[in-house]
Amino acid sequence: MTTIRLAHLYPEYLNIYADRGNIAVLTRRAELRGHSLAIEAVSVGDALRPGEHDLVYIGGGQDREQTLVAPDLAAKSDALHEIAAGGAALLAVCGGYQLLGRGYRGRDGSEMLGVGLFPHETVAGERRLIGDVLLDCELEPGLRRTVAGFENHAGRTKLDAGAEPLGRVIAGFGNDGESGFEGCRVGRALGTYLHGPLLPRNPWLADLLLSFAIAHASGSEPMPLEPLPDRLEAVAHDVAAARARSRGGRF
Length: 251
Ligand code: GLN
Fold this sequence. Notes:
Elements: E1 3-9, H1 19-31, E2 36-42, E3 55-58, H2 63-75, H3 77-85, E4 89-93, H4 95-99, E5 103-105, E6 111-113, E7 120-140, E8 143-159, E9 167-171, E10 181-182, E11 184-186, E12 189-192, H5 203-218, H6 231-245
The structure holds glutamine.
The site of glutamine has 13 residues, from helix 2 and strand 8.
């Protein structure tokens, strides 16, 4: 029985597309295994202290909200680097994913300095990249799994050469609509454009994050969690995957 300490960054600013649903999934799946989540909202002006969290979550937002939080997030940059280097898990979605890179230039030209945790840069394009997405991921050696989700972003994110994406795009746009990459991974930190929300349709990803967080909390190596039936989750995944495939397989 582990208490997983989760920091939810800027919940009142970055919360579009039901990002809170991701936290509900993490909470429930932890509880079903006898663990619990202690959720702390960390917002503008609040201290983020390394060593106090096992999992960090930052959601999506529109350019306006991103502009409001970006200076505060940049001020938390050292703490976030220390938290990630210490082996805590992190999930960043869409607007949060953009700001955890080196920076984001929004649609109106405003430059937002990022945290530099993910090796990428983002610039908003004219056309929004919207629709269902299907990814091919290999986050554990030899274990290939799909992620189904929904994207809606103006930002084009360019990964540095050699950076590890979260997955390869089977259908949809992904980071920039041309590289075939989606998201980014640095150790136990995962970033993605996919929301909708993401974790209800991809429970294996929720469990991977929980296993990273439990390992951090207990000072052990990540262990697979006891499987759950996940019948409804599989249907939700398959419906979204079929919708994404019907877009015509961009890559
Ligand atoms: N404002 C950002 C963009 O349009 C992020 C959008 C989002 O979080 N959905 O690219």
